Amino acid sequence: MHTAFGREFDVPDGYLNTASIGVPPTCAADAVAAAVESWRRGTARAPDFDPAVTAGRAAFADLVGVPAERVAIGASVSALIGLVAAALPAGARVLVAEGEFTSVSFPFAAQTARGVSVVECPLEMIGTRAPEFDLVAVSVVQSADGRTVDLDALRAARTAGTRVVLDATQSLGWLPADLGWADAVACVGYKWLLCPRGVAWLALGPDLAAPDGGDPQRDGYGRALDGFRVLPHHACWYAGGDVWGSIYGLPLRLADSARRFDASPAWFSHVGAGAVLPWLAGLDRGAVREHCVGLADAVRGGLGLPAAGSAIVAVDRPGAPDRLAAAGVAGSLRAGAVRLSFHLYNTAGDVDRVLDALA
Predict the structure, then answer these.
(1) Stated pTM of the model
(2) Which domain holds residue 122?
(3) 36 found inside a domain
(4) 113 with 179, same domain?
């Protein structure tokens, strides 16, 4: 059992696989177990899960830097980004990073049959090339190797009129950054946010979150993609203005906020999110980054690599997968390298374990 940032984690030494599956604090796992027990005994009631959904939504909004009214819930990044991709008009030009996680790029590539074009470029050139395109879709931190995108360059491109869609899955939870300026920020919860799989969120810019599509000039946005409007393609009862008054019959009566894009919640996943996200949002985010990045950079330094300012380390050395596995290090193979990720519950002992295995 490890204690980190005021919470207990039942995580083994050498667990460096948060970029694949985060380990929850015991209090969050206990909350999910209690909800499952209530279900098993037939005492669960559907409205009982609403407070957890609300708490998770509000904490996610805090982490991103937007009002909760601009956040929708879903189950996966690809489905939420797909709402944005489906809204693009024919002829829209989209830029993505080479080797981007496909939950970001595939939703846009799937629109090419109706005239949307998608171009790849090296991550390091995304900011420079962004003004050439109508929309840029990119992960804040790359899944395969932990490289970070130039957010300042993207924000400048956004001011000039290029729409920006961000996937914060590999950054939110350890990298403090104001992302509220982006048109859309999607994130799944089961990695760095330490939630059960089955919950994700989408924060939308003010013009996209408005029921009528908003006014880009009024909202301080450029004129790229005039008429660009996200539609609630998976509209459901939970997206209603009055959730429990929207379960039968027409007319359509969706929420005026981004809740109208909600998918029906996976209850137990939201119980976990409601237990852990408010705690994460309340931590000293600078201290969290210093802890996670400090451990990762210690590994880089021990391997003769330069500091990178990322909590993810890609180890590409002969025999590394077998040697690390034999030493009890849990990581993932990604793009031909062993991906190691350092989170709240990791310690200097994990750094020593990696360096000893690769010495």
Answers:
(1) 0.95
(2) 45-280
(3) no
(4) yes
